[in-house]
């Protein structure tokens, strides 16, 4: 099985719709099969990114709650 290449977007400190808009921008630059991990402390980012991933045909890999932020992983 090939290794998965992961990119990280640190969107902590950005308010809605900042994390979503930055994730969309970055996903446009990534090749297929890569995983983007979005770090966000905006409570709405979980919902926004989950719905956007489903709507745009990306795979929501995971949502991990950390101390004061979430790590939201989406595969292109």
CATH topology: Translation Initiation Factor IF3
Q: What is the count of helical runs? A: 2
Low-confidence runs of at least 5 consecutive residues = none
CATH superfamily: TusA-like domain
Overall pLDDT level = 92
Q: Judging from the principal axes of the Cα atoms, what is the shape?
A: globular
Number of domains: 1
Radius of gyration: 11 Å
The major beta sheet can be summarized as: 4 strands, mixed
Derived from helix and strand composition plus strand pairing, the structural class reads alpha+beta
Corresponding CATH architecture: 2-Layer Sandwich
Task: Kindly report the spatial arrangement of strands forming the biggest sheet.
Answer: 1-2-4-3
Straight-line distance between termini: 17 Å
**How many strands appear in the DSSP assignment?**
4
Order of helices and strands: EHEHEE
- Please identify the top-level CATH class: Alpha Beta
Report the sheet-strand fraction.
Answer: 25-35%
Helix content: 25-40%
Textual characterization of the structure:
By secondary structure, the chain is α+β, with helices and mostly antiparallel strands. It has one domain (6-75): Translation Initiation Factor IF3 (2-Layer Sandwich), CATH 3.30.110.40. Helix content is 32%, strand content 32%. The chain is built from two helices and four strands, in the order E-H-E-H-E-E. A four-stranded mixed β-sheet has the order 1-2-4-3, with helices on one face. Helix 1 links the parallel strand 1 and strand 2 (35-40). The longest helix is centred in the N-terminal third of the chain and has 12 residues, at 18-29. The radius of gyration is 11 Å and the shape is globular. The protein starts with 5 loop residues before the first strand and ends with a strand. 22% of the residues are buried.
């Amino acid at each position: 099985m090939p290794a998965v290449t992961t990119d990280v977007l640190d969107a902590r400190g950005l308010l809605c719709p900042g994390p979503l808009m930055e994730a969309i921008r970055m996903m446009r630059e990534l090749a297929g099969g890569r995983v983007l991990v979005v770090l966000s402390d905006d409570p709405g980012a979980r919902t926004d990114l989950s719905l956007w991933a489903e709507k745009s045909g990306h795979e929501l890999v995971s949502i991990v709650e950390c101390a004061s932020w979430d790590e939201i992983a989406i595969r292109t």
